Amino acid sequence: MRTPYSQRQERLRKALRAAKADAFLTLHGPNVLYLCGFSGSSAALLVEPRGARLWTDSRYTFQAAEEVASAGVRIVKGSLLAAVGERLRKLSALHVGFEASRLTVQQLQLLRKAAGSKVRWQKVHSLLEAQRAVKEPGEIALMQKSAALGSQVFEDVLPLIRPGVREFELAAEIEYRMRRLGASGPAFETIVAFGERSALPHARPTQRRLRKNELVVLDLGAILRHYCCDLTRTVYFGRAPARIRGWYQAVLEAQTAARSALRPGVTAGQVDEAARSVLQKHRLGRFFTHSTGHGLGLEVHEDPSLAAGQQQKLQSFNVVTLEPGVYVQGVGGIRIEDDAVVTPGEARILTTARRELLEL
């Protein structure tokens, strides 16, 4: 019976043949999960010209039997890499594709020694990443549920934004509520930043207490059935001054421009430029210090990267974040982030939390 996993393996084999490789080896958990359904923390998967084999250890004997139907499972007592090498020695001479950015030098040396001199090792990192970047309908449906969960958490924690609450308390509430709604956990360390600390794009929550008339940035991501969402909202605790209102509207306009540019055939850099040019028009360009977005899926950062100069062309059913921001040292920052599906028409936004400036 053909499963989504067997179909993914077959698409990968087709790409491998085009790259003149015979097999593909991955130790990277999200790639193992994508190709055969196994979600354990220790595994090696070899996609062969016919079939696939998964090696893991005895901690996952029952789990592998439950999760994996599109690969043969081998439970190993010793080294997974030695077991892979032993299998490769038994096959005819192969060109084995591997992910150079996922293997250490030591791991590759061990594999070369275990597999023997007949095996040729070939770097093919981008092949599977390109395949994973184009989401299947089932993946998009799961990501929509994940995005709805994250959006609900944002709405639920708004009443907790009150004088004296500490950043780490609010972050803890966000992650607790994710799990209460069914998430397996956060996709990344939740960002909560008050006042001048909101100018730090990747601020870690601290004991800083909220005061009146301050910006509040909440950046949260949930994992639901292995798929991530990524949502950022900025609110103002008090009555926002005109300058903050102006910045917020500029960021919202920049995000709208990026969304309008998001369609098949445009380059990732063109989407970034659409957002960046709006902020330049408002004389805020120098305060936008990161890319406009990134791919999203089994990992919170995937291909494609919506960054300046990126020439990769977007495809239908890429799922990306749109997250322009403005960060002014000593004052604070504003970021608005949503998850979007590239479609032949207008991009479809998955996250549903309110985008207008909320004054609490």
Describe this structure in words.
By secondary structure, the protein is of the alpha+beta class. It folds into two domains: 129 residues, Creatine Amidinohydrolase, Chain A, domain 1; 226 residues, Creatine Amidinohydrolase (Alpha-Beta Complex), CATH 3.90.230. Helices cover 36% and strands 22% of the residues. The protein contains ten helices and 20 strands. It has a six-stranded mixed β-sheet with strand order 4-3-2-1-5-6, sandwiched between helices. Strand 2 and strand 3 form a beta hairpin. The longest helix is centred in the middle third of the chain and has 21 residues.
User: How far do the termini sit from each other?
Assistant: 55 Å
Q: For this structure, what is the CATH class of the largest domain?
A: Alpha Beta
**Total number of helices:** 10
User: Strand order across the biggest sheet?
Assistant: 4-3-2-1-5-6
The CATH architecture of the largest domain would be: Alpha-Beta Complex
Question: How many runs of DSSP E, i.e. beta strands?
Answer: 20
CATH topology of the largest domain: Creatine Amidinohydrolase
Rg, Å, rounded? 23 Å
Low-confidence stretches: none
Main sheet? 6 strands, mixed
- Considering DSSP H and I runs of 4 or more, what fraction of the residues is helical? 25-40%
3D shape: elongated
Instruction: Domain count, please report it.
Output: 2
CATH superfamily of the largest domain: Creatinase/methionine aminopeptidase superfamily
Protein structure class: alpha+beta
The H/E string reads HEHEEHEHEHEHHHEEEEEEHHEEEEEEEE
Strand content: 15-25%
